[in-house]
Amino acid sequence: MSRCAANTLARRTTSSGRWSVKILVTLRKGVARLHRVPEGPNANLGADDAALSFEGYVPTPAAEAHWLGVLFGMYQPPHNREERVDVIHDLIRDQKLGLLVSHGASGISANLVPFVLHEAGGQRGVLECHLARANDQWRELQASDEECLVVFQGPHAYVTPSWYPSKREHGKSVPTWNYMVVQARGRATVHEDRTWLRRHLEELTSENEARFEEPWRVDESPEHYLAAQLKGIVGVCIELTGLVGKWKLSQNRGVADRRGVIKGLMALGGRDAVVGEVMAAVLDVANVD
Question: How far is the C-alpha of 2 from the C-alpha of 43, rounded, in Å?
Fold first, then answer.
């Protein structure tokens, strides 16, 4: 699979009166950046010429959130955007189970499958998984030139406005939901080779069995049984060209309200407390009474 040679990730054009605006997203050190190029009615800018016109343009936060949503399929206010590739990779490794979404001749396909992340592969990493041979999604991926999407849902929790001290002052509060999510995009390559499949299964198994006192190994299965199982699956490799994280953790609220949310989530325990812990670390308000 070829790597993305240029920084350009996507282009869209919108019009305003007799002038059009070219919106272009570039990737620099794995971070998406938005630019605008105003063009006259008769302008004929090539990619290299257009690139010279980006310097100095800073879109408003609202415009940036809108266009990144249009281009990447996820609404992203600037204060919710997670741009650190290592942090995004951490969520992928922690969650592992991703929703593989693709579009083919039969329409949209979506399947939950466990992934292995190779950080060093490609520009933003490589995802590997396997599908049942009976699952037609792998055939659609093989036949398509389009990118596929993998969604990794991190911890999430309901937030009641009762936790906001500001509610008692003016009452202008509504419920919301805090969450962390990653969208990864790239073109898929299908693998039916037994050597590739076995190596993938050994990595996937080793990664998930590591927490047990007596981890199970692939080579514990009889060879004839394993050979039969390998015939029933197909491998998928996705070299990532797009990686977007959204950490919606009450960043739009004041410090007092954030502390209130963290305290409320921690008191609930369980998965809610996990969101509270992440909020405390990310928002640097860990000292909650």
Answer: 32
d(CA 226, CA 177): 44
Torsion sign over Cα 90, 96, 98, 104: positive
Residue spans of the domains in the chain: they are: 8-72, 85-282
pLDDT tens profile 201-239:
999 999 999 999 999 999 999 999 999 999 999 999 999
Which residue, among 83, 82, 100, 91, has the nearest Cα to 140 in the 3D structure? 100
Strand partners, 187: 239
| Model confidence, pTM | 0.76
What residue type is 177 in one-letter code? W
In the three-class reduction of DSSP (H, G, I as helix; E, B as strand; rest coil), residue 189 is classed as strand
Dihedral sign from CA coordinates of 103, 106, 108, 112: negative
* φ, ψ at 189 (rounded to 5°): -115, 130
Asked if 232 and 138 touch (Cβ cutoff 8 Å), the reply is no
Q: What is the pLDDT of residues 121-172, one digit of tens each?
A: 878 999 999 999 999 999 999 999 899 999 999 999 999 999 999 988 888 8
Residues 6+ apart with CB under 8 A from 137: 100, 102, 104, 109, 111, 131
Give the domain 85-282 fold: Pnp Oxidase; Chain A (2.30.110)
Kindly calculate the radius of gyration of the chain based on its CA atoms and give it in whole angstroms: 23
DSSP 5-55: -SSEEEEEEEEETTEEEEEEEEEETTEEEEEEEEE-TT----HHHHHHT-T
